[in-house]
Queue: 4 jobs
Job 1
Amino acid sequence: MGGEEEEGIERNSCSSDYGLRNICIGAAAFRGDEEEAMMSYWRRGDREKLLEEIGVCCCRNVHKVRFQIERPMSVIASSEVVVDDFELLETKKSAIRNAGTGKLQVIADFDATLTRYWINGRRGQSSHGLLQQGNSEYDVKRQELYDYYHPLEFSPTLPIEDKTKLMEEWWEKTHGLLIEGGLTYDAIESSVASATIAFREGVVELFEFLEERGVPVLIFSAGLADIIEEVLRHKLHRAFKNVKIVSNRMVFNSDGRLVSFKGILLHILYIHLPPVGPTSS
């Protein structure tokens, strides 16, 4: 959260056994009103199963990934996409194609999924990691929390129940420091402007393609919604009417100073995705 990941460790890997470099954007085909799309990028024990259920392509050690449902198997086989089961991929593509755009929703994580993991040989920053409060004392305190809790996030011995409580504790303390330290929206704008963060190749084109066809995009993140929105504005220079962000939302007073957070606390192991159907705004 407060700092950046060690080289070679991907926060949103599919599981600790694989060390995957990238997770592709997941597309979930809705079958009427009976089913809801459920996505979790964080609970490691369940993640691969959940990703498989909604048709996400996970790729190992590949930096440039394109998931195009129009591609025949022969083209995919010779491209930069790595999949475990080509026949299963074709089955999923057919299901998505047959369901049509009216029953399609794209669900994507933000940090190191829509954004690049490496930028000019450096680790790209996350929506939490890029934030500088304009108060060095509190920036140091947030880094100290990161140094303590981050190893616990990846601990192979902690039960998931204990780890979940620790992640809740980490996020609550970090949010408390942002409020106590007097974070302003001006500081967010300044932090984003100077941040080492960039979108992956093809993200803009993908968003435009989906917007033209009325396909909703849900960015689901344990980061900070206000920073994600500022990154979208600063880096893409436009808004997309079909994009919805589910993340930790800040509340600012009339002076532009952070006073609270609203909504459910979304931490790295939060697994309950609020239902958002194809017609949601």
Note: The longest strand covers residues 243-252.
Job 2
Amino acid sequence: MIDQVGRQPERSVRQSCRVLGIRRKTYYERKQGNRPEERDEQLIELLKRTCSRFVAWGFWMTFYYLRNEHGIKDNHKRVYRLWKQAGLHLRLPPKRPRIRREYQELLAPESVNEGWAMDFVSDWVIGPEKQSVRVINIMDECSRRALCVRFPLSATTI
């Protein structure tokens, strides 16, 4: 209000406020919610141009670039708010196509010797030295009969 009426250079803010009948707090009060939209739009445009030029950069690299190269003096919190508002924080990697495989049901063998199963079993042997033992089991899938149980004597312990 004082600036609109025209503050005289020889008068202080205090004297001007007294003449107009307003408090000095009102003169210095920051207007809430009165952000310059044009400046925000310019900064958003600059952010978008920088991000399209440097695709791999995140927020901090872009912020430092704008500060050093373009002389942006804005707070990092304000720039980050505009960064999110512009939707630049949503950098998702492109989706890879999934390989679809046809799953076939495992068929149970109908007669003996159609399918065998092999399994390694390990255990501890209690004795003067605690040793690990590995045993190989081979069995028929139809009859569930053990065809071979081998314990290699020369096998090294785990």
Note: The chain has three domains: 1-32, 35-90, 116-150.
Job 3
Amino acid sequence: MIDNGKKHLSSFMSERDTRYAIRNTSVSVGRGLLFVISGPSGVGKGTLRKKVFNIFPDLVYSVSMNTRLPRKGEIEGKDYYFVTTDEFKKMIKENKFVEWAIVHGDYKGTPIKFLIDELQKGRDILLELDVQGAMQVKEKFPDGIFIFIAPPT
């Protein structure tokens, strides 16, 4: 790993884990790492994401797209990208999502172009998804690093 004075998310992994990840990933120059935090609702994915971003501020967070109306305090492009249902359905037909689902009657998904562009720039990306979304991402990005958060027993 090139030391540019910035923390890199892969520094969370041991040297052995890093070697394994590199050996089992199609790595090319300038390719970032895709990290996916998933788990059931209420397990603490959001809390973990916030803590990770405090440690690794250069990590990129992929903003989801949503068809519901913005809630008070939500910011376009930071919390979600808000689009109409027709726009979302058109994007589904054009395969523009790495994952998508209908949640409480609204469409929600992660645009794939942003992920590809940022990974090719060498940026590390973090997604916070439910289990079904993570499974869809794994189909398209099998070399990603998937972190499942289980509830306490």
Note: The chain has five helices and eight strands.
Job 4
Amino acid sequence: MSVDDFINDVFNDKLNLDAVDDNDKTAAIYLAENENYEKLEALIKMGANINFVNSRNESVVSILLNKLREYRNLDAFPLKVHKKYTASLNMFEKLVKKYRCNLDVPVDIDDNTAFMALMLIPKLEDVISKVIFFRELAIYP
């Protein structure tokens, strides 16, 4: 089954919202990988588990953090990349603030949590400050 068919089957109630395919990925993970944040948000609103972590410590949060790191590390940071970075950052903010994702789940092979991973990435100071801000507001415990 193709990734698109898998995602369509989830949206069409042919598969559970949190179904895992042969690659140990959910539709939410694929949507995050493909930066289809509109569909990802629709899936979350339908009740998908945004805190699912597969056997490789991949999750929606880890995918977004990797995208943010990738875009921030590009030297030129052209407008196209800036737009992708901004879209990924906005989705990350929504996951934390609106959907209250768990930042204490592992996001890499070293079992770093999302919060720990943010502190290990020096070029993501703005993301770290936003997470701290959310925590101070008690939006995320």
Note: The chain is about 55% helix and 0% strand.
